[in-house]
Amino acid sequence: MLLHVSSEKVSKVMAGLLVLNGCAADIAQDVAELLPKYLENIARGDVTPNARPELLVSEGHLLQFHAHNGFGQHAAKIAVNAAIGRAKLRGFCLLTLCHAHHLGRMGHYGKMAADQGLVMLAMSNVTGRQALVVPWGGAEARLMTNPFCFAWPFNDGRPSILVDFATSSMALNRARVMSSEGKQAAPGYLLDADGHPSVDPGVLFAATPGALLPFGEHKGFGLALMIEMMAGILSGGSTIAEAHQANGSAHNNLFALLINPEKLASEVDVKGQFFADYLLATRPQREEAPVTYPGMQSAKTRRGNDKTIPVSDTFWSWMIEAYARKGILLAKAA
């Protein structure tokens, strides 16, 4: 059963629970989205809850930050906001962030940049956990899901283009849901623990786990390889070769380029809008499913959740119990 709770209430109670577990209020506000997992990470010592990002290098177009094992969503917010200011001033900014706990959804940072009229290319490698994705042609995992983001703004009111995807054949959470529902994956997505093709997403959660294949065969592997080296090495961080453990927590390094398009080309807005119109005018395969560009659906979802957020009654019950353990009575969701 889904409860529809005010967005403001959900944000406050989730951030409040992080504060009760030792997190500074401003950091808690940035990272509350993945609350249950993050509370577990705090308890295990996987993250330093009050660590703040340190600016290591600020030279011209270059900004480099070190997160010091702090919450990635807070560190990245600080770093990306600094890069937005630098790109507006100088035309572009090359940004890196190393040794952060889980950064969360890459598209969030792309939207931050696009909302300020900037183009963004960003990529992040994943360390700290056991490898999950095989190199193309391999029979055992050596990489993680290594996500990539591209954002392009429009100034005529339409949603920004927002491309945000992992370089694995599917997300791990999607595989977990499919496994719990007894569903099979399409061929070409999974290998079992012996390196044989499988359609059972449960192989990823076996005692000896299987692995995901890269999306797009050798092309996805090539992108994952690029991301691992650009984000893991150029950031001053690490690659998964150096930093992985069987029961570890996800950590990230970030490499991003933020561009002020008006500094580089004329008629940026007119040309971008014309290209978007050109795409949207494509004759669809099915009349009831018109062609869209990445970012349109997520913008529609955000508008739908502007005032309330659908929350499962199971999750809200967990919240009530978590507050009760701290001696606080949390009211039931309205």
UniProtKB/TrEMBL annotation:
Protein keywords: Oxidoreductase
Pfam families, A to Z: Ldh_2
GO molecular function: oxidoreductase activity
PANTHER family to which the protein is assigned, alphabetical: MALATE DEHYDROGENASE, OXIDOREDUCTASE-RELATED
Entry similarity comment: Belongs to the LDH2/MDH2 oxidoreductase family.
Record's protein name: Lactate dehydrogenase
Originating organism: Aeromonas sobria
